[in-house]
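In this supplementary section we document a worked example of the pipeline. Step one takes a protein sequence of length 235 as its only input; no multiple sequence alignment statistics are reported here. Step two produces a three-dimensional model, which step three serialises into structure tokens for compact storage. The input and output of this example are shown verbatim.
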Amino acid sequence: MSRWCALCWIAVAGASCAYEGAEFTIDRSAELLSAHNTISVFGVYRDGRMDPEYWRDLGPRLAGLFGPRTCELLVDERLHAEEPDLFTKIDEDTKQNGVSSELLGQVAARATGASIIAIQLSGHPPTHQRASSTASGRSSTGPSRGGRGGGRRGGPAPREDPVDDNAFDVFVSLFSVQTHQIVLSFTMQYTGTTVDDAIKKFATRLGVELPGSSCVGWKWNEPPATGVIEAPASK
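The serialised model returned by step three reads:
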């Protein structure tokens, strides 16, 4: 084997080991090649509903991906405190439809970034006991994990099946504020054993897709566009 081929094999093997237990499906649009390096974070959708509290754990793990500080969410305690009606409408809509393109379009005027990112999580990594039980007592197909595709208005379908305790899925959509189109769809199916390992692999691979990105905040008290989450009329 030549020295060049040996180096190639080492590089490929290293990349495979870096993502062992994780399978990625990535769909990029041509527009992603343009400037989308400033990103506003919509929020975290976890196991069928918005979960602002989970960002306290997830956000610091992604700090290296989006810059040195934890990113500000739109769907978080601040929105709940300052605009509870809007928070409730977003929460109810996402329970039914997931995080849809239409929903992101309605809040796009609030984003200070060139794009909006929505992070959706479902399932749990298998423990050794669950993995062993799955291997011996269940078919390889397992239950549907949901959370992607088939939802109204182009968003992921809301969860109807029980949470799968044998796989952990991450789905990310990057929405262009200018064109109101999804410019990156990123899915990771993880069958490893720990959430820490799953998030590390997710962040590493997403960083390849979004090099040099930084998170920016939101404009507050900016009314959303007309639609299912239209804010109440001013009194």
